[in-house]
Request: fold
Amino acid sequence: TPDPKVSLKEIWRILKPSGLLIASVTNDNIARRILEYLKEFKRESKSFSMMAYNVKEWEQVLQKEGFEVIEITPVVTRLPLHKFFPFLRKSGQYSTFHDNDQKLCLNSLGEQVFKMSYKYIPFSITHGLVGVAHKVAP
Reply:
């Protein structure tokens, strides 16, 4: 959606009192910022840019739009490692998007980085954030 705040206002309007919202956004973390900067640095012209939020920003957006945040959790997927770190891909794998995380094959080093990252620094490497929140009465 071009403006998540507009969408959240509409969701809040049609949601029953104390209704549950589960919504995800792209995670804005330091790894994404560095890699996106390097990609843009190489390009002569700018291209589409997606909106991304860090944990605190996503929580604040949800609260501002009338939701009580229950939990913010990372989207656990191999996509960021597979896409941004080609040396962690299994031989013969390319940076294509797959809905099935198992098709994003990492080599043995990549799998170790994946497991350690999600165990110790999940919000630093995750592709997205999922917010779970209740509608708060006005």
